[in-house]
Amino acid sequence: MAKLQDKASAHDLPKTAGAAQETPHQGIILVVDDSRMQLIHLVSHLKKAGYQVFDATDGLQALSVAKQYKPDIILSDYFMPKMNGLELAEAIKSDSELSDSYFILLTGDENQEERNHTHNGIVDAVIQKPISGKDAVARINSVMKLKRLRAEMKSIDI
Question: How crowded is the C-beta side of 143, counted as CA atoms within 13 Å?
Answer without folding.
Answer: 22
